[in-house]
Specification:
elongated, Thiol Ester Dehydrase, Chain A, 4 helices, 26% helix, single chain, five-stranded antiparallel sheet, 143 residues, alpha+beta
Length: 143
């Protein structure tokens, strides 16, 4: 699995006064795709929390290319493009599922931390499965 596709139907509540998707909702969709990506790999985020490992967002960025509106069926494609000793970088593409028009791109960088919010190493089992399924060795710098 080089990437994970998360499907979503834009709600009326997702739009602003102009009738287009409110910009911050794209970050929520990034999170939903990222969460489902980990679940598909067999590592739901709740399992990390049980081990007192957390992944706060250290950096987030989005480029808005075309609008989405109420009732659009969208696909958020999430992929891991870099894994470090204590960090993980995801990239995202948001597309209209029907037309395949690219609506937005972006990325988030996450730091693995323990319960005291101190950075810690990416757990070996997570690093191994991400590298295996995301084909990171062929696509990015792996440490």
């Amino acid at each position: 699995m080089i990437y994970f596709d998360y499907r979503y139907r834009v709600l009326y509540a997702d739009t602003d006064q102009m009738g287009i998707t409110y910009y911050a909702n794209y970050l929520k969709w990034f999170e939903a795709a990222r969460t489902e990506y980990f679940r598909a790999l067999g590592f739901p985020y709740t399992e990390c929390e049980k081990k007192e490992i957390y992944l706060p967002v250290a950096e987030a960025h989005a480029n808005y290319l075309a609008p989405s509106t109420y009732d659009d069926d969208i696909t958020v494609r999430a992929s891991v493009v870099e894994i470090g000793n204590s960090t993980l970088r995801f990239e995202y593409q948001v597309m209209n599922s029907k037309t395949q028009v690219l609506l937005a791109t972006g990325y988030t960088v996450h730091v693995f931390v323990n319960k005291t919010m101190k950075p810690c190493r990416v757990p070996a089992e997570i690093k191994a499965v991400v590298q295996e399924h995301a084909l990171l060795k062929k696509r990015c710098r792996c440490k």
